[in-house]
Amino acid sequence: MSYIEEFNPVAPTRLELAYIWYLRLLAICFVGLALYYWMRISGYYPGENWRFDTMSSQWKVASAILAVLLPVTAAGLWSTLPWGQVVWTMSIVTELLMYNWFTEYYGQNLLIFTFHMTTIVVYLAFRGVIALKANRK
Predict the structure, then answer these.
(1) Cα(101)–Cα(18) distance, rounded to whole angstroms?
(2) Contacts of the segment 104-113: beta carbons below 8 A, 24+ positions apart
(3) Domain-by-domain residue ranges, the chain?
(4) φ and ψ of 75, to 5 deg
(5) Which residues of the chain carry a pLDDT beneath 50?
(6) Quick one: pLDDT at residue 7?
């Protein structure tokens, strides 16, 4: 009998399936955020800071970083691999810093802040419940 024939994957529990689909829902949200930054860079909307050639230096840096980081975040979260959660953390920290600590450059965005804080709380709740169930076994 070969190693492959001995391999019996364990079916995920309902909680684990909910966690996987939560990460995938987040991935879809991050695709939307990535499209928002790509629209900024491409100049889809008229106005200051809405086209790369007319943006301030701060917005150029932030938009370029997030336009690359957010699609990578979405791919990592969709695949549910550990690196996706690391990149997700980098994306969240970047936007939270932009919209809450550097408001003189980027303005304040309460919607982004609320979204990220809510997703962090739900993520931590999932991880906590999964860890508790694993410790009970």
Answers:
(1) 33
(2) 105/56, 105/58, 105/59, 106/58, 106/59, 106/62
(3) 13-136
(4) -65, -40
(5) 1
(6) 64
Yes or no: say if 51 and 18 are a contact pair by the CB < 8 Å rule.
Answer: no
Residue 9 makes CB contacts below 8 A (sequence gap 6+) with none
- Going by C-beta distance under 8 Å and a sequence separation of 6 or more, which residues neighbour residue 129? 15
Dist CA 52 CA 56 (whole Å): 8
Tell me the residue length of the chain: 137
CA atoms of 111 and 48, how far apart (whole Å): 21
Predicted TM-score (pTM) of the model is: 0.83
Tokens for 22?
Answer: 């939560």
Write the CA distances from 124 to 21, 40, 60, 119, integer angstroms. 15, 31, 32, 9
